[in-house]
Design a protein that fits this description.
single chain, alpha/beta, 17 helices, binds GDP-alpha-D-glucose
């Protein structure tokens, strides 16, 4: 008989399971990524069930326990993967919700599979949720799940959290399936967003598209009330702080600095290789700084860590080419043998290596065109135990609402960004400390545990 996950009082649904098959040995290991970094601490604190896709389109594994929580895999066929995930989620919703910074595609053949897969997730959750359980549905892939699950299990407390931005009314109205998506979300008791602005966008859409009534954050539709509010997500601050106190991490940071030249300032970028992250624009600003002679390679060096992402999608293939061309162009024109202008690492790093980079970096560059929150910005701040270093941060990130003592830049403005980077490089130590201290206080006040407590707490109200 196949193994079954036990019924649980806490069920998390996300497109992906938080684990993947370990390459080196048999078994599973926890995956890197914003959503996983944010939710895992919460899940392991109370043995919950995570429902998600395990990767691959073959027969999914039977439910299994890993590091104190259960994993229930949802099956996806090859065509469902292409249409629900590659198509509707990542080529319709992802660009539309990120200010249409690449044109969203509205192919009708993607919508049916999106509904079908959402139904499968709703059914899987309905099977593993104990009576009155809290179910947390994560992100844009699963926006129809709250409504579907409500139909199946009216006893549940359903929360939905959107990790990415929610677009302004004018943009969302482009979507052919706009009313259905809003209705789907309204099946949740609490609909969480990264910012107040996003929550307000949603409330306005509910009023306009499905005639919902709203009073502040409470939105009433078909006799049910939901709350649409901001719950800015965060990070496990203590875990990062303790990594940054680890002598091995400190020694590695010193080694990185020594190798790059202790006399140079280190700029750092860490992102998924995604067109929303503004990696190309950041590289153009770096090129400009060197081309205009504002800075030389003896003064500054950039490390860009880019984690491969969605590598079979055209827009991502184009971005990778553009980024690699810019790295090549900058290095070709400005590097010397043994002294590179840009170090480009296209891979995922172990977390202690990442922490060593955060420790080593004088300036952190976080320059997305639009980003729901951006955990990297918060991670850098958490790692600066001595309150040194500067953060250059796009005003179009959710993080900019909290980290307002960063150097805020408009990522569409290459010159403005170059000026921001130069300002960060030239910042005096006392000013770095003033700004970093204020930002560290904010990050420590809202950790991922506070986020989870607030979100789950709102569901239990
Ligand atoms: C989505 C939203 C929102 C990165 N490189 C490595 C690595 N990472 C980790 C970082 C960070 C996470 O991945 C990236 O999180 P972000 O927030 O920056 O971005 P998304 O992946 O786009 O996340 C975003 C987030 O969800 C949470 O709600 O903030 O707006 O788009 O934690 O540290 N981790 C390791 N090696 C790497 O090379 N180990």
């Amino acid at each position: 008989m196949a193994k079954r996950a036990r019924k649980s009082d806490l069920v998390i649904l996300a497109n992906r399971l938080p684990v993947h098959r370990a390459k080196a040995r048999d078994g599973w290991e926890v995956s890197p990524g914003g959503l996983v970094s944010a939710l895992l601490p919460t899940l392991t604190r109370q043995t919950g069930v995570w429902v998600g896709w395990a990767g691959g389109t073959g027969t999914p594994p039977a439910p299994f326990e890993h590091e104190g929580f259960w994993n229930v895999a949802v099956e996806l066929s090859e065509s469902e993967f292409d249409n629900y995930y590659g198509g509707f989620s990542n080529r319709t919703l992802w660009p539309l919700y990120h200010d249409a910074c690449r044109p969203p595609l509205y192919h009708r053949r993607w919508w049916g599979p999106y509904l079908e897969v959402n139904k499968r997730f709703a059914e899987a959750a309905s099977e593993v949720a104990a009576k009155g359980a809290v179910v947390l549905v994560q992100d844009y892939h699963l926006q129809m799940v709250p409504g579907m699950l409500r139909e199946l299990r009216p006893d549940l407390r359903i929360g939905f959290f959107l990790h990415i931005p929610f677009p302004p009314v004018e943009l969302f109205m482009q979507l052919p399936w706009r009313s259905q998506l809003v209705e789907g979300l309204l099946g949740a008791d609490v609909i969480g967003f990264q910012t107040k602005q996003a929550a307000q966008n949603f409330i306005r859409l509910g009023q306009r598209l499905v005639g919902a009534k709203a009073s502040r954050s409470v939105i009433e539709h078909k006799g049910r009330k939901s709350r649409a509010e901001a719950f800015p997500i965060s990070i496990d601050v203590e875990r990062l702080e303790s990594l940054c106190r680890d002598p091995k991490v400190i020694a590695r940071a010193a080694q990185v600095r020594h190798r790059l030249g202790n006399d140079r300032k280190i700029l750092l970028g860490v992102d998924r290789l995604d067109y929303t992250k503004g990696i190309d624009i950041r590289l153009r600003s770096m090129y400009d700084l060197l081309a205009k002679g504002t800075k030389t390679i003896d003064e500054a060096v950039l490390i860009q860590v880019s984690v491969p992402s969605r590598e079979d999608v055209d827009e991502y293939i184009e971005l990778r080419s553009a980024v690699e061309e810019l790295v090549g162009q900058t290095n070709g024109e400005f590097s010397e043998v043994g002294r590179m202008a840009v170090h480009y690492l296209r891979r995922s790093l172990p977390i202690d290596e990442l922490a060593a980079f955060y420790l080593a970096a004088d300036v952190m560059l976080v320059t997305p065109l639009r980003d729901g929150m951006n955990l990297v910005a918060k991670e850098y701040v958490a790692c600066r135990l001595e309150d040194t270093g500067s953060l250059v941060l796009s005003e179009f990130t959710g993080a900019a609402h909290e980290l307002d003592r960063a150097i805020l830049v408009n990522p569409h403005d290459v010159d403005g960004m170059a000026a921001g980077i130069a300002q960060a490089l030239d910042m005096t130590l006392p000013e770095q400390q003033r700004r970093m201290k204020a930002m560290r206080t904010k990050v420590k006040r809202n950790t991922v545990f506070d986020w989870a407590d607030r979100f789950v707490g709102a569901l239990r109200d």
